[in-house]
Amino acid sequence: MAYLDNIAVFVRVVELGNLSAAGRDMRISPAVASNRIKELEKHLGVRLFNRTTRQLMPTEQGTVFYSGAKQVLEAIAEAEAAVSALSGQPRGTIKVTAPLGLGRRLIASGIPDFRDKYPDIEVRLRLSDHNVDILKEGIDVAFRLGLIEDSSLRMRGIMECERVLVAAPKYLEARGEPTEPQQLVDDRHDCLMLRFPGMREYFWTLKTRSGPAKFEVHGPFDSDDGDVLTGWALAGRGIINKPRFEVEPFIRDRRLKIILADTPPTPVQFAAVYPHKKLQDPKVRLLLDFMAERCQRLIRDILAGR
Fold first, then answer.
1. For 29-52, what is each residue's pLDDT tens digit?
2. pTM beyond cutoff 0.85
C-alpha cells in the first residue's frame, strides 16, 4: 500500500501544483508528502518534478507517469466501489463541496446524521461560494445553486428554487421602492452583488411581461460570500437577489421586504454535480439520495415557516 500511497500523493501534487496543497488535501504534512515523492522518484529512477520556489512542474517523465498513475488510482477506486456494492457495506471517503450559505444551512448539519446511518463512510466537506474545479480538486460531489454549464459533469437536479429581490424597510424609506425593474438601473439603486474571480453573472435576470430580461445593476460594494450580502441588506445598505428559502425568516419578521414581486428574478437550479464515473460508487449514490431528500424537506419547512 505504501507504493500506492506514494502514487496518490504524486497525482495530487501534479493537480494542485505544490506539496503544501497536496499535503492539506491528503491530511499529511508537506514533509511527508515530499518524502513520498522522493521515494517514488528513487523507485522509478527518474526526476518527476522541476522544482521552483512556488510550484512543482512535472518533468516530461512526470507528465507521462501522471497519465498512467491517474488511471491506476481510478481503476482501484472503481474496483473498491464494485466490491462495496456486492458486499452491501459501502465504505471510504467522499469529498464534498457546497456554497457557503447553502452548505451551512442544509448540507453541514446533515453530515453527522449521514455518518450515523453509514458509519464506514467519511465525508470531508469544503464550503466556498467560488466555482470549485471539482476535477482538479478531486471532489466527488458538488452541491450548487445556479446555472450548471459544465458538460464534463453529470448533474442530479434537487429542486428549482424561487428567487426574490429584498431590501430592508430602512433602505426603501431612504431611497424609495422601485416599481419597475428599469428603475433599479435608472435610479442607481444599491444592488449588492455576489462576485468572485471567474464569476460570469454581472447582471440580474428578471421575469418581465415580455420574457426574461437582463438588467445591468450596480452597487457600492460586493462580496464573494452570500451571507455577507444578506447582512448588508439587513443593515439597510442595499437590495439583494437571493433564493427565497435563504431570506424567508427575515421576510416573515419584516426585517426584509420583497420588492418587484410581479417581476421577480428567474428561479435558480439547486443540483448536485459529479464526475461521470462517480455514480457507479455506491457511497456517492447513498449521499446523493440522503441529501436530496433532506434538502427538499428542509427547504419546504423553511418556506412554510416551520
1. 888 888 888 888 888 888 888 877
2. no
CA distance linking residue 233 with residue 238, whole number of Å = 5
Best CA proximity match to 56, nearest among 95, 11, 5, 113: 11
Helix axes 2-16, 19-26, angle to 10 degrees: 130
pLDDT in tens, 134-175: 877 788 999 988 776 666 778 889 999 999 999 999 999 999
Q: In this structure, how many other beta carbons lie within 10 angstroms of the beta carbon of residue 208?
A: 15
User: Using an 8 Å Cβ cutoff, are 130 and 224 in contact?
Assistant: yes
Q: Are 258 and 251 in contact (CB under 8 A)?
A: yes
Sorted by where each starts, the structural domains of the chain and their CATH numbers stand as 2-84 (1.10.10.10), 89-160+269-303 (3.40.190.10), 163-266 (3.40.190.290)
